[in-house]
Amino acid sequence: MKKLWGGRFEAATDRIVDEFTASIDFDKRLYRHDIEGNIAHCKMLQKVGIISASECRKITSTLKEIENEIASGKAKFTPEVEDIHMYIEGKLIEKAGETGKKLHTGRSRNDQVALDTRMYLKDEIKEIFTLLKQFISEIAAAAEKQIDVVMPGYTHMQHAQSVLLSHHLHAYTEMLLRDIGRLKQCYKSADVMPLGAGALAGSSFPLDREYVAKLLGFSSVTANSMDTVSDRDYQLEFIFFSSLLFMHLSRMCEELILWNGTEFSFVELPDEFTTGSSMMPQKKNPDVLELVRGKTGRVYGSLISVLTLLKAQPLTYNRDMQEDKEALFDTADTVKKSLLVLGKFFGKIKFNRARLEYEAGEGFMEATDLADYLVMKLVPFRQAHEVSGKIVIYCLNKKKKLRDLSMNELMSFHKGFCEDVLGILDPKSSVKRKKTSGSTSPAEVKKNIKRLYGILGKLKLS
Predict the structure, then answer these.
(1) What pLDDT, in 10s, does the model give residues 383-401?
(2) Which end of the chain is flanked by fewer CB atoms within 10 Å, N or C?
(3) Annotated catalytic residue within 277, 406, 412, 462
C-alpha cells in the first residue's frame, strides 16, 4: 500500500517496520471520533473557502460511508495502514479521488490524534461519571437500610470504638465523592480543542479553530501549538484519578473479603457475584472483589507507564507517544467494567446484623467512654485514661467484660463513678453519646446520608 507520506522516500518501508510501528490494532477504536473530527475539519475548510460546498458534501458523505463499513465489520485492517487516521484518509482518497486528498489541508496527525484522544476521553468520562454516581447511590441505599446497626470500628485491625455500620459505609461514599471531583477536573482538562496546531507550529491557512471547537462541543481551544501536540497531561490526570479511585475500591473490596470470611461473618455475598472451587465443594469465593483488588495494580502500572513515557521527551511530538493509548484505553475499560459490576453487586450484599452487633460488644470498646465519663466529672483526661486502662487489665484478669462490672468494682478504681455510668457501657449508648459533626451518632449519620442524596441529585459533570 502506498504511504500517504511517502513522497520523500525512494524505498518502501520494510515489512517488519510496518508491523513494529503500526498502532491500528488498538487505535482503531477511535474511528468514530476520527471521522467526527474529520467532518468538522471538512466543514471548517469549506467555511474559510479552502474547499467548495460540493467537495465538502462529497467528503462528508464518503466519511460516513467509511464509518458504516467499519461499524459493520467490513473493514480490513493491516499493519501497512499504520493507524486509524491513515486508514480512514486512505479509504477516503480511494473512494472520493482527488477531492479526498484535500481533507488533510492545514492538519497533521499530531494534532489529529490529540483531537481523537480528547474526544474519546470526554465520552469515556461521561460514562464513568454516570457509573460512579450510581455506585455511590447503591452504597448510600445500603447505609440507609442498616441505619441503626452497630458494629466494631477498627484501628490497627483491632476493636477500637463502636460505630454504626451506616457510618462505616458512608465513609466510602465520601472517598468516592472526592473521586467525582477529580473526574470533573479530568473532563475540564480534556475539554480543550487541539486541532489547528498542525505538526507543532500552527498553520498558514486561515483555519477557524473556534468554529471546529463549537462543532465538536469543546469549551475552548488550546493556546500554544507546541504544547498542544506534546501535551498528554489530560490523559495522566485521568489515569491518576483512576488510580486513586481503585485505591478506594480496593480498600472496600478488601474489607468485604474479610467480612465475608468465617472469622468475621459480617456479610453474606450474593451467589450471582461469587464463584465456586474446582476442588472444594463448600467454597463460595469473592472473585469479583479479588479481581477489582487485583486490577488496582494494573491501573497503577498504567500511570507509571505513561509518566515514564513522557519524562524525557523534548518538545514537541515524538513517536514514543504512540505508547500512551493502550494504557489509556485499558484504564478506561477497567474503570467502567469494575464500576458496572460493583454497582450491581453492592445492593445484593446481606449484612449479618446479629454478628455485627455481637462483635460491637467485644474488645472493651467502651473503655474510651469510661475515660470520657470521668473527664465530665472534672478528672483530667490523662488520669481518666490511666484509670480506664487499669479497669481493662482488671477485666482481662477476671475474664469479665466492662458491662459486667459492679458499682463497687468501678468505684474501687475511682470515686468519681456513679450509678449513671452503667448506662454508657453498651455499644448503642456509645454511638448515641457522640456529639461532633461528622461523627457516628445516629442523628449525624442520618443528616449526612440526606446531604449525600442532595449532592448526588445536583451533581453534574460540567
Answers:
(1) 999 999 999 999 999 999 9
(2) C
(3) 277
